[in-house]
Every structure is written in C-alpha cells, then in structure tokens.
Amino acid sequence: MWSGTPLFPEQASTMAGRVDALYFFLLAISVFFSLLIAGLIVFYAIRYRRRDPMSVGEVIHEAMALEITWTVIPFIISMVIFVWGASVYVAISRPPDDTLNIYVVGKQWMWKFQHLDGQREINELHVPVGRPVKLIMTSEDVIHDVFVPAFRVKADVIPGRYTNLWFQPTKPGRYRLFCAEYCGTRHSGMTGEVIVMEPSEFQAWLSGGALEGSLASAGAKLFNDLACNTCHRPDAKGRGPVLDGLFGNTVKLQNGEIMTVDEAYVRESILNPSAKVTAGFQPIMPTFQGLVTEEQLLELIEYVKSLKALPPAQASQTR
Ligand code: CUA
Fold first, then answer.
1. Domains defined for the chain, CATH in brackets
2. Is there an atom of ligand 1 within 6 Å of 187 CB?
3. How far is CA 83 from CA 20, 76, 80, 224, 255, in A?
4. How far is the centre of ligand 1, averaged over its atoms, from the C-alpha of 147 (Å)?
5. Which residues of the chain have pLDDT under 70?
6. Which ligand 1 atom minimizes the distance to the CA of 144?
7. What are the backbone angles phi and psi of residue 227, rounded to the nearest 5°?
8. Computed from CA positions of residues 81, 86, 87, 91, in that sequence, does the dihedral angle turn out positive or negative?
9. What is the pLDDT of residues 130-149, one digit of tens each?
10. Burial 301-310 (b: 16+ CB within 10 A, else e)
C-alpha cells in the first residue's frame, strides 16, 4: 500500500507484510493514545480551570471501576503487542527446513557471497523468487550487518561466528542491501544489491560463468591438500573421529558434554581443535588457525556437511 511512497520501502518478501502490519499497529496505538492524552489535558485544563481564586479542589476517594478499567485495558493491549511481536520474531528467526543456503563473508568494505554450486559474487546476490533463502554469514574483520529493507530483515555479521538470516522473496527485481553496523571509514559505501529472478532464469544464471565446481568439492580437495584425510578416515581406524554422517548429529565430548555438530562446532574444531575433543580421542590435532581463510573454512564445512553416513562395507571403498 505504501510502495509508491519514497518514505517507505517496497514489500518484497513474505515477512514484509507481517512486519509492516505490526509496525502500523504500534504506530496507531501510539498515535491514538498520544492524541487522547494531549486532547484530554487541554480539555480538562479549560473545563476545570480555577474560576474563583479562593476555590479548593474536591477530594476524590476510591473509584474501583475506573482503576480496574485503566489497568485492564493497557494490560490487554500490551499482551496483544507481546504475543504478536513474539510470533513475528519467531518467524523471522526460524528458517524453514528446505532453504536454499548461501554463504556470506563480510569484510571492510564488501560483501562476498558463495553459492553451494560454486558460484561466487561480490556485492551482488542472485536468488530465485518464491524460495526460502538462508544466508549463513561471518566476517573477516569487524562486525557488519546485513540489511535488506524491502525484505524487512536484518542481522549482524560477526567475526568468528556464523549467524543466519532468512527470507523468501515474493517478486522479481533488484533490492538494495546495506551494511547496518558502523564498520569503518567506508561503511556507508558497503552496499550491494539482491537480484531476485524467476527460478528458470536463476538456474541459467547459476550454471553460467566460470565453473569452479561446488563448494563441497572444493572442500574435498582442500581436505586432502591439508592432509585431514590421514586422520579423519571413513573406516573408524583413523586417529580422528569419523566425519561421515556427523553434521547435524550430536557428539559426546571428553568432559561428558553433548554437542550438536553445526557450522560453529566444525569451525572451532578446525581452528581450535583441543577446545572440544570428542570422547575417546586424544587432543593431537594441530590448529589450522591462519592456514585457512574464511572462504576455505566454508568449503570445509560444506564438505563435512556433504559426508553422509555410509554402511561400513561401502565406507572403506569410497575414499
Ligand atoms: Cu560493514 Cu558497516
């Protein structure tokens, strides 16, 4: 409804309408009560002004009905705001299961995007319309923040961590992407564009350009180059844990703690291997801090994700 107004960004994701509805509700409540209170102040100031310099105010005793009313109405309104706000918050922070995953690395002062098929782009992100997209994001240096106003989504991009952001674009077009966290001299220039395409066009775009192979295959190559495969073997005879089928599952650590294997855990295990050692193994793995870039870490993570559990007989033949 506001798309023609330059004051208000276009609505181009499934979340945009929900965020705006909540926003306008809050705005309407604030405007209504501000006007009501300001109006009553003026009205009563005139209506009950002191007409006689000697007059004394009347003492008012309890008015139970009135007090209950002005307690219950704000309570109901604030509960509506809470439940509504929480439902939108949960929807924004929980991506659906079948997302198209894209990695994002922020650095002073550019955005790098990596598609799982191997396509890379800088300050431009191509996505298909109608499909939920999840960005898995990290930073090479300082905190940045991805903000796409037309999608009404925004999330910090933090060095040493992976944060997520998801959206489902509803119409093709080009939408501005901003960095929304002050990150240095050229922060204001750290912008980009999200290009939403029809699925068929997106497929064509994805298969065009330099084919470097998928992220997982680049990870597999790196896994061999760094000699990770000498210890992490698929047959449980290696000095390190078997990685097949590991991602998304839980592992038991030496201290008895149970961890879910996610991007952050794999990352930490590569950069600081002795931090969380799997039960039954020795902390003998060297650190790869400084030896792998953020992009290479993503390749390795994607490789570990791609390793599905195989029956033992097959496993020994695959690598
Ligand atoms: Cu990156 Cu501001």
1. 100-207 (2.60.40.420), 215-317 (1.10.760.10)
2. yes
3. 16, 11, 5, 51, 39
4. 10
5. 1-6, 209-212, 309-319
6. 1
7. 65, 25
8. positive
9. 999 999 999 989 999 999 99
10. bbbbbbbeee
